[in-house]
Amino acid sequence: LALSISAGAIAKPLVIAHRGASGYLPEHTLEAKTLAYAMKPDFIEQDVVMTKDDQLVVLHDHYLDRVTDVAERFPDRARKDGRYYAIDFTLAEIKSLKVTEGFNVNDKGDKVAGFPQRFPMWKSQFTVPTFAEEIELIQGLNKTLGYDIGIYPEIKAPWFHRHEGKDISKAVLKVLKQYGYTTKNDKVYLQCFDANELKRINDILMPEMAMDLKLIQLMAYTDWNETMVYNGDKATPYSYDWMFKPDGMAKVAQYAEGIGPWKPMLVDDKSTKTNIIIKPLMAQAKAAGLKVHPYTFRADEGRIPSYAENFDGMLDVFYNQVKVDGVFTDFP
Ligand code: G3P
Ligand code: CA
């Protein structure tokens, strides 16, 4: 009986704290990461972008204006599109900015809190952490508390950094190596939306640096502009269509350990509570031997699919029916 139970047991999916405990505190602050740590997820996520002086900081966007006071502090430093790009600022300048909850700017130019019920806007001294500082926080807590919580960095917009003359992937690998993350046995997944960049990391950069990390291919739809291709100065969206073809997952498996799809790529919206329609991508990924870590599991109203009714129902569908290997969640 014991044997049959263990043979049939389904491993609990990995919990990946998405931008930290970002359902409670401003995303990617060390405070949100510390709270995430206390919730004992398997991994804590870092989105990583580069500064003018080649430092790596943990920030979701490659611009600073959604979560900081950069527009007030450096009003003349926006580009033509009105954005304040991290790559135009030194680490010292970025460190001098205040971080708050993500906000939107309305027609009148007022800043409107994205999460009005959460941490009061601007009433804090939150700052943008470096990638190294965040690793030191997590490794320090691991040593002190005896847990083994991993990191899950995402290389953000390598196409943009390359166009600006920066090799963000090499810089990320260098920091990972410096902190002891070098093999597939180390508790790290390295993720990116850019398939060509992941292939380059797998085929060229990691062999050159004597590294062999687990890679995750994030998946977007072509019209999201998650990945761009430059022709001179003109950038056009990279097409993700090949990943959804029957042989797409086998191609991904040549360089990656798993995929990070948007969760509606796995379950059809036409699903009902009694009839969950699982999309072909799941079986294709499993047939190719890939792990599947969908994003993003949130409790916010309006983001729960009707077939799932609530957050627990959504987890139940993805854990027990789709049988994913892990979930990115704002609520670790
Ligand atoms: O990395 C998984 C998920 O975080 C991708 O979405 O936009 O939150 O980085 P995003
Ligand atoms: Ca991410």
Automatic annotation (TrEMBL):
Pfam family, one: GDPD
The keyword RNA-binding belongs to this UniProt entry's keyword annotation: no
Stored CDD domains: GDPD_EcGlpQ_like
Transmembrane segments: none
UniProt keyword terms in alphabetical order: Glycerol metabolism, Hydrolase, Signal
Enzyme class (EC, first level): hydrolase
EC number assigned by the record: 3.1.4.46
Catalysed transformations (reactions): a sn-glycero-3-phosphodiester + H2O = an alcohol + sn-glycerol 3-phosphate + H(+)
Gene3D superfamilies per the UniProt record, alphabetical: Phosphatidylinositol (PI) phosphodiesterase (3.20.20.190)
InterPro entries for this protein: GP_PDE_dom, PLC-like_Pdiesterase_TIM-brl
Ranges of residues in domain GP-PDE: 13-332
Family the entry assigns: Belongs to the glycerophosphoryl diester phosphodiesterase family.
Entry protein name: glycerophosphodiester phosphodiesterase
Organism: Photobacterium leiognathi
